[in-house]
Amino acid sequence: MPAVAPTSSPVVAEIVRSGFVEGHHYGSLVALDESGKVAWSVGDVTAPILPRSCNKPIQALAMVRLGLDLPPDLLALACASHSGEPFHVEGVRRILAGAGLDESALQTPPDHPLDDDARTAVLLAGGEKSSILMNCSGKHAAMLATCVVNGWDTGTYLDPGHPLQVAIAATFTELTGDEIEAVAVDGCGAPLLSTSLTGLARSFRALAVAGSGEPRRVAEAIREHPAHVSGTSRDERDLLTALPGAIGKAGAESCYAVALPDGRAIALKTDDGAARVRPVLMAQALERSGVLETPGVDAVAVRRTGRVDLLGGGRPVGEIRACF
Prior knowledge:
By secondary structure, this protein is α+β, with helices and mostly antiparallel strands. It is 38% helix and 18% strand.
């Protein structure tokens, strides 16, 4: 039987308007302690999920192991669901040019930038959707560059049986500690590998605590260039800026994973996939795990990333409130 997502998840957040609870979000979370053991969890954290773009740092590690050699800013872009800001697009072109390719090699579906200002600028300039503007183009450019390094076919790089994807799957299994129960197709067209929330947290922890080698290269790229991993106005960038030494990645369907250099790690997902609740849950999970008491952490900024106001008449009249 095909793997299926967990059902009957508990309530993890309330939608509160003018003091009235008008709805709920359901989901699951897991937190690992410094030793890598489960410190606490909510819901089913052992069933397989599709982590969506949270997989990207692990995919990037596999590519580095295969010989991909990028400067830190471009390696961060290989881990990104970028906003399509000019520096993102220019960075993708740099990755491709370094491999002797151009954007015609990308197999990402054409799209507009995620960032409102960047999208408006493209439209005002008469631009259209393009593959390089799609938020996964950094990962795809890195995949193509890895193929060139190894002499592999670039036209079939998204095939699950391609040597690139086989190697990515091996690294994914190694870091998560889970067997891959499902191979789906992600929104960008790349193979999407399943793991549990606990496995996802383990994989991010492995990167965050690495003291040397390829895992540390990936972690340091994310730490040094959080805006390349997301965008200048994104909550993920703000959170990593507030958590010195942390790494993190958000994904579609309200997936999110964050790990600290001391070994603590958190992974979460909601059943409805609502993006708005994702930062609310992460901020609360970090607080419950005692991360906000860690020296150097900007607790006010972390809490700010988890504040989502509900508007009425153009002014805040409520909030999405974590309840675990």
